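Annotated sample (chain length 260).
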Amino acid sequence: MDSERYEVMEYSGGGFAKAPVESIREIPLTIRLNGREVVTLLCTGKQPEYLAVGFLKSDAFLSSPEQITDLHVREEDGRILADVETCHDPWKDRLMERSITSGCGKGTNFGRNVQTISKRRLNGDVRVRPEQILALAEELHNRSALYGRTRGCHNSSLCTPDEMLLFREDIGRHNAIDMICGECFLNNISVDDKMIVTTGRVASEILLKVVRIGIPVLVSTAVATSFTVKLARQTGITLVGNVRGGRFWVYNDKGRVLQS
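Output written by the structure step:
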């Protein structure tokens, strides 16, 4: 269940009347790593194992799926608990400075992202035509059934230039991307020839997640922040935004968006 129905009083045409609405589900997901609490995310509760692992991967707690020795997810007392056990010490040498990011729910990063990930260079060999970008953005919109019912979620997808492979939706675009990250990580899905197509503003933490996964092309139906553009140009990720009405902006490219 990813939504609930309520009856509200709707004002329209100069008066009030009862109206049914559908609200997206919001439930806390607490992630514990080797018995230590890492973070509590607010999410719909869909595919919590992928979301938990994806968050840990994108925040550099995990580097290989072989490090995971146990993964147990359960729902109790109105929340979801994800307990992850590893064979390594994920806390060793970590900087635990907490940053408040620009995303919904005040997502966290732990002091490492900008300085470490911005040194990476993405060299994935993928080529995409403008009409393929427009078609994938249109498909993302058409698949957004939960958004159509609730107006309360973001959508992200893992794609090749020709097709959409994974589609995920959640309260925040961070969660949706982490779900994709976790699924690729656990199932050994290759990503250097893939794209992320998503909704929502592209703030720096979104780009850093995609860079850490290793996906060379990030496309959003919304715009990017100035810091995101700077990081895209440092890392070599192809960044496309404001896809709508048959148009889009290419903030940065390494020849992956074909000109003709």
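Annotation: The helical segments are 48-58, 113-117, 130-142, 145-150, 173-186, 204-213, 226-235.
Annotation: The domain at 130-252 is CATH 3.40.140.10 (Cytidine Deaminase; domain 2).
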